[in-house]
């Protein structure tokens, strides 16, 4: 459906958990994680009711996220059920990849169309420093397995001056060796991300040119998101940039989000949304649910408030609670 300023909203990101098996320093604390209780997160039945309602409002693509979506029990079945909903054309996932090797077969069988694997370094020491866990081998195994099963695979990397700024060549090298797109996601000053400094796109492009040759803007279509892609000489995949802050793309935003505890978020960085859980648990009808969501989409904020907003609308959640 179109929102109040004519943007076509056809993409929903569903966070299925706020728990994670990694502890990326820019996303979560090592200890003292205050996770939602089992009764606080939406059940699969509730998620499916919402997915059915939004499919009738024009949502065509669903991305499953978290926390780490693969740690939620029963996730494969949820994907299968969402894929079966009339109108939903594509179900994809963003994952840290640790459990992907073990689960790729059943995910492919359930109809998962594509996977974005978050990987910030190919160097095992800096991988451990960033994620606070020693499991680069499992992630690489997961990427290989997903590709071998024909699941479209992309790599997402957040370049951070203090953490992986010095070893991004290894990540870029993935796109040289394999037909896999690598995307650099600009660090956002959300939660623990505020403690670190992003690496600018200009700097990344300069470094790419020095090490791999001149990047040329790519003319082919790479997906439905806001990434801007480049081709490099001899590369099998492309390198993309998603820069929500330095290159705001709110005017063409096509997405809404559902948090694990049932808040329908209309904008990534906007502390406003609609609490759907109490409505679902209060027995709202299918038509009632659809009307609430339709009204919320219509009133989607014009743009995020990274560059300043009032005290009421600045987002206070961490990325692990939003789902990226
Ligand atoms: N655990 C899964 C994963 O890592 O892909 C899904 C959830 S994670 C919150 C989704 C994405 O958000 C990851 O690619 C992660 O790197 C990114 N992310 C987390 N904190 C961020 C921040 N402050 N700025 C930009 N991206 C961030
Ligand atoms: Fe977990 Fe993903 Fe956050 Fe890393 S970025 S701590 S993998 S939710």
Describe what this molecule looks like in 3D.
By secondary structure, the protein is an alpha/beta fold. It has one domain: Alpha-Beta Barrel (TIM Barrel). It has helices at 44-55, 75-83, 100-110, 124-131, 136-148, 169-177, 201-212, 276-281, 286-298, 319-322, and strands at 11-15, 61-65, 90-95, 114-118, 152-157, 181-185, 216-217, 228-231, 239-242, 255-258, 263-265, 273-275. Strands 7-8-9-6-5-4-3-2-1-10-11-12 form a twelve-stranded mixed beta sheet. Helix 2 (75-83) runs parallel beside helix 3. The longest helix is centred in the middle third of the chain and has 13 residues, at 136-148. The two termini are 22 Å apart. The relative contact order is 0.16. Iron/sulfur cluster binds at residues 20, 22-24, 27-28, 66-68, 96, 118, 320.
């Amino acid at each position: 459906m179109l929102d109040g300023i004519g943007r076509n909203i056809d993409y929903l990101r569903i966070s299925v958990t706020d728990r994670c098996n990694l502890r990326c320093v820019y996303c979560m604390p090592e200890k003292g994680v205050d996770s939602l209780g089992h009764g606080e997160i939406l059940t699969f039945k509730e998620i499916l009711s919402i997915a059915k309602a939004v499919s009738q409002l024009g949502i065509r693509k669903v991305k499953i996220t978290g926390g780490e979506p693969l740690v939620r029990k029963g996730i494969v079945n949820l994907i299968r059920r969402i894929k079966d909903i009339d109108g939903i054309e594509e179900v994809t996932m963003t994952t840290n990849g640790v459990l992907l090797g073990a689960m790729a077969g059943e995910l492919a069988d359930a109809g998962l169309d594509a996977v974005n694997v978050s990987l910030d370094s190919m160097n095992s020491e800096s991988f451990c420093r960033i994620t606070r866990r020693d499991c680069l081998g499992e992630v690489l195994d997961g990427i290989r397995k997903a590709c071998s099963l024909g699941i479209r695979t992309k790599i997402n990397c957040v370049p951070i001056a203090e953490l992986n700024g010095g070893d991004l060549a290894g990540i870029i090298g993935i796109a040289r060796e394999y037909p896999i797109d690598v995307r650099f996601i600009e660090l956002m000053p959300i939660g623990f991300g505020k403690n670190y400094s992003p690496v600018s796109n200009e700097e990344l492009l300069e470094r790419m040119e020095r090490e791999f040759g001149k990047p040329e803007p790519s003319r082919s279509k790479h997906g439905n998101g806001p990434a801007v892609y480049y081709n490099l000489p001899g590369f099998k995949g492309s390198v993309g940039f998603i820069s929500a802050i330095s290159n705001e793309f709110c005017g063409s935003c096509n997405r809404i989000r559902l948090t694990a505890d049932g808040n329908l978020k209309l904008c990534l960085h906007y502390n406003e949304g609609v609490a759907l859980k109490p409505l679902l648990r209060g027995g709202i009808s299918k038509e009632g649910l659809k009307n609430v969501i339709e009204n919320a989409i219509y009133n989607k904020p014009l743009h995020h408030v990274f560059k300043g907003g009032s005290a009421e609308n600045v987002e206070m959640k961490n990325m692990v609670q939003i789902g990226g």
